[in-house]
Amino acid sequence: MTKPHPHTPAASPKPNTKTFGINALSIGAAAIGLGGALLAVFLRSKANPAEHAAPDLALDKPRPGATDRAPDAFRPDPTAVPTKAERESLRPATGPAPSFAADRGSTLG
Predict the structure, then answer these.
(1) Is 65 helix (H, G, I), strand (E, B) or coil?
(2) What is the pLDDT of residues 47-104, one digit of tens each?
(3) Contact, 70 vs 76, CB < 8 A?
(4) How far is it, in rounded angstroms, from Cα 25 to Cα 28?
(5) What is the Cα 67 distance to its own chain's centre?
């Protein structure tokens, strides 16, 4: 009986295209993720010109309690009679709720 010959395949000069494609996709996804994270950090660290410090909301400022009241100039007058325009602006909405769907039987256009 003959012994089985151990066969070692020759190394191929061309890389396996399946693993090369998976590796390329993995590296590309990692690069996109890293770029997105760096962009988010950069945009987050940029100061917003519309924001400003609010010294009255600082932690060391006293907080108003239940017994503190607003100055007289900012308190509403409970005896004042509202005008017709004020009364109309406070009236609840009684119409149908707005919707993107057309009512049954109506035509669009």
Answers:
(1) coil
(2) 777 777 788 888 888 888 888 888 888 888 889 998 999 999 988 888 777 777 666 6
(3) no
(4) 5
(5) 38
Look up residue 109 and give its two tokens: 């256009």
CA distances from 47 to 42, 43, 50, 58 (A): 10, 9, 9, 19
Q: For the whole model, what pTM was predicted? A: 0.32
Q: What is the DSSP letter of 58?
A: -
Residue 81 burial (C-beta neighbours within 10 Å; 0-12, 13-18, 19+): exposed
- Proportion of the chain in helix, strand, coil states, percent, rounded to 5: 40, 0, 60
**DSSP label at 95?**
S
